[in-house]
Design goal:
The chain contains 10 helices and 12 strands. The protein is α/β, with parallel strands linked by helices.
Length: 252
């Protein structure tokens, strides 16, 4: 059975979180980092933009500043995502391109299968919703984004435990007249969470453990707990400057 590395659950500021993902990806490509699964929380709450998105079109920066919410650009594609520091767990997988199907949708499905099995361990009947979502009862409970570089794959995404839906729509570019109780109720019918489905909020560690076991089953691997290497930490600290820069944020 193959062995992958599992990193401890972290709570980091957003620029460092993005830098860690890229550092692992780069060093994996250079043969210096193993296939890695990690989970983390955001501090503070953050909106992450897809690589190709325009800040001005996607995020209300004034609201973000007023509410103490950070904004960061990812290296992965996809749409803008609100990450609630108290209501979401985020996962990240870095592996070789040959460890997942070449077809993009099939690779999303293969990686998301680990999450689906994790949700089922928590008592939720989850299923894959192409291209990159997981749903329960027809409602989104997880979304993912991916990039492929240097013959390696980085996929990361959300695990919705108990997010603040109203705040999400205040931050994302939705016209003020649309943010009504009716609009929020409609959004609530399209998105769900672990707490909403179970009637109680599990701990972040409980969710992490369920997902770890789900990934073990789906990939047929064992996970060895490890830490970031000194080289990964050093590279991540260098990359923080990029992710925290105005130029990177306003790239599009």
């Amino acid at each position: 059975m193959k062995s992958w590395r599992l990193l401890p659950l972290r709570v980091d500021e957003p620029f460092y979180s993005m830098a860690i993902d890229e550092a692992i990806l780069r060093l994996k490509a250079g043969g210096k980092s193993p296939n890695t699964l990690r989970f983390w929380r955001w501090q503070p709450s953050t909106v992450s933009l897809g690589y190709f998105q325009s800040v001005d079109r996607e995020v209300d920066l004034e609201v973000a500043k007023k509410r103490g919410v950070a904004v960061v650009r990812r290296i992965t594609g996809g749409g803008a995502v609100f990450h609630d520091q108290d209501g979401e767990l985020t996962y990240s997988v870095v592996c070789g391109q040959n460890d997942v199907p070449r077809d993009i949708e099939k690779s999303f499905e293969a990686i998301c299968e680990g999450l689906i099995r994790g949700f089922k361990r928590l008592g939720l009947d989850a299923c894959f919703s192409p291209l990159n979502d997981i749903s329960v009862g027809g409602k989104k409970i997880s979304g993912s984004a991916q990039t492929r570089k240097w013959r390696c794959v980085l996929q990361h995404g959300t695990i919705l435990i108990d997010p603040d839906i109203r705040l999400m729509f205040e931050l994302l570019r939705v016209s003020p007249e649309k943010i009504t109780d009716k609009f929020i109720s409609s959004a609530y019918e399209r998105v769900t969470s672990i707490k909403r489905e179970l009637g109680e909020k599990p701990s972040f560690e409980e969710v992490k453990e369920a997902m770890r076991l789900g990934f073990e089953e789906s990939f047929g691997v064992s996970f060895e707990e490890g830490e970031l290497s000194s080289e990964e930490i050093s590279l991540a600290k260098e990359l923080i400057e990029k992710y925290a820069s105005y130029e990177w944020l306003m790239k599009r």
